[in-house]
């Protein structure tokens, strides 16, 4: 009985196009990724329908995590001198006894979340390792000793002459009274316009905003 | 596996009898490790990339003032007071709070039947220039609640709203409601 001949197929697939696409995607992700600076706290921001973009420069940002710890950040990539001015002023006014190196380290640090008394040990550690230190947050609850007010005032003075943005980035679980304390600190510096950092969200259908946005297009 | 084949072209090429045959090197390169590494990097960048850039939402607060004549006046008929409390509970009343708290109602953040519907109904039933929404986040309200309610103002295009501290009476009413009982009369 003659056996049916099965055509022998090679097990070797040509994977070149596959590899091509893979590296194309890889290149895309490398280009598209913006490396996040190390942040000492994880903050999940609430969603809003707002579409305004987050400014990356000339901004003062106050962050607040779920436990109500407050962190202060100056976003001034174009001008590192401004940050240096702030810490120099602070060092002088509050007698912190910081060394030149510690002040330079402040420029590299992303955010600060300690009372003035603990600022020296924090800045003695390199900026990359600061996220391992447990920071208790800047005191804001006490109205007589609202240290955030001082931070904001110094930052505004250092960056005077420029249009500043005041950002508040708080966690979903942060309590409203803590948020109010942060607002109070801004208000004491005669700042009344804020920008709340949120994640984008779609406009719900059938609402007035959805109608007017559709009409505008 | 992926391979480069440049094809051995000199099969039929005969050399002379004294010429030593050179050992033929394979031109096929095993690309498996390269592909492995490629995919490893893809996975890494996919996980680390933050695709959605954060947006910002404007919030303008008024200057604190004690002078009575500088305070913004709101028409009673157009006022809607919204209070937030723990576990995403929302309470609201229209106009003035009745002494027996009969107009003190409870709702939530549900997109269909929650506070959005209340605001939409209120907006429809009042003149546009009279409508004022007073937002009073309670002690237990989270930041998310605050942003959500401010977002409702944008969504429903409410032009006049104010972020105000909650009063003692309202706190007690919320506490009484959450305690399980019916809204207690406002204790003075």
Characterization of the model:
Chain B: It is found in: Cell membrane. Chain B: Keywords: Cell membrane, Membrane, Protein transport, Transmembrane, Transmembrane helix, Transport. Chain B: Residues 1-25 are annotated as: Disordered. Chain B: It is a single-pass membrane protein; Single-pass type II membrane protein. Chain B: Belongs to the ExbD/TolR family. Chain A: Pfam families: ExbD (PF02472). The complex is a heterodimer of chains A (217) and B (188). Chain A is α/β, with parallel strands linked by helices and 217 residues long. Chain A has a domain at 58-200. Chain A contains seven helices and six strands, in the order αββββααααβαβα. In chain A, helix 2 (80-94) crosses helix 3, helix 2 (80-94) packs across helix 5 (147-158) and helix 5 crosses helix 6. The longest helix of chain A is centred in the N-terminal third of the chain and has 17 residues, at 16-32. Chain A starts with 15 loop residues before the first helix and ends with a helix. Chain B has 188 residues and is an alpha/beta fold. Chain B has a domain at 76-178: Nucleotidyltransferase, domain 5 (2-Layer Sandwich). Helices cover 28% and strands 15% of the residues of chain B. Chain B has four helices and six strands; from the N terminus they run H-E-E-E-E-H-E-H-E-H. In chain B, helix 3 (143-155) links the parallel strand 5 and strand 6 (161-163). Chain B is rod-shaped, with a radius of gyration of 35 Å. The relative contact order of chain B is 0.13. The interface between A and B is large, with 63 and 53 residues. Strand 6 of chain A pairs antiparallel with strand 1 (55-60) of chain B, so a sheet runs across the interface.
């Amino acid at each position: 009985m003659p056996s049916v001949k099965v055509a022998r197929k090679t097990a070797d697939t040509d994977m070149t196009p596959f590899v091509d696409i893979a590296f194309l995607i890889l290149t895309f992700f490398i280009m598209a990724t913006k490396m996040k600076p190390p942040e000492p706290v994880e903050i999940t921001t609430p969603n809003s329908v707002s579409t305004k973009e987050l400014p990356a420069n000339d901004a003062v940002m106050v962050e607040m995590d779920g436990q109500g710890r407050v962190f202060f950040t100056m976003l001034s990539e174009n001008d590192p001198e401004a940050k240096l001015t702030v810490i120099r002023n602070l060092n002088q006014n509050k007698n912190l006894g910081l060394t030149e190196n510690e002040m330079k380290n402040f420029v590299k640090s992303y955010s600060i979340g300690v009372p003035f008394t603990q600022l020296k040990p924090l800045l003695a550690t390199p900026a990359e390792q600061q996220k391992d230190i447990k920071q208790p947050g800047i005191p804001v609850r006490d109205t007589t000793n609202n240290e955030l007010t001082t931070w904001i005032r110094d930052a505004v003075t250092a960056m005077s002459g420029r249009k500043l943005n005041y950002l508040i980035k708080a966690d979903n679980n942060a309590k409203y009274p803590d948020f109010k304390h942060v607002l109070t600190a801004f208000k004491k510096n005669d700042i009344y316009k804020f920008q709340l950092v949120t994640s984008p969200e779609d406009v719900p259908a059938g609402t007035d905003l959805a109608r007017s946005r559709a009409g505008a297009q | 596996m992926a391979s480069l084949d440049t094809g051995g072209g000199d099969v039929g090429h005969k050399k002379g009898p004294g010429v030593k045959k050179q050992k033929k090197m394979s031109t096929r390169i095993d690309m498996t490790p390269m592909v492995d590494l490629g995919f490893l990097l893809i996975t890494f960048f996919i996980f680390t990339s933050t695709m959605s850039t954060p947006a910002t939402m404007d919030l303008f607060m008024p200057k604190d003032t004690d002078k009575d004549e500088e305070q913004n006046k709101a028409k009673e008929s157009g006022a809607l007071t919204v209070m937030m409390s723990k576990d995403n509970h929302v309470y609201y009343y229209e106009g003035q709070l009745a002494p027996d708290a009969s107009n003190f109602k409870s709702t939530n953040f549900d997109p269909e039947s929650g506070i959005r519907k209340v605001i939409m109904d209120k907006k429809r039933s009042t003149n546009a220039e009279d409508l004022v929404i007073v937002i009073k986040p309670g002690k237990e309200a989270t930041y998310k609640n605050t942003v959500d309610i401010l977002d409702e103002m944008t969504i429903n295009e409410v032009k006049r709203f104010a972020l105000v501290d909650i009063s003692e009476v309202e706190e007690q009413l919320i506490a009484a409601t959450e305690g399980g009982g019916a809204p207690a009369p406002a204790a003075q």
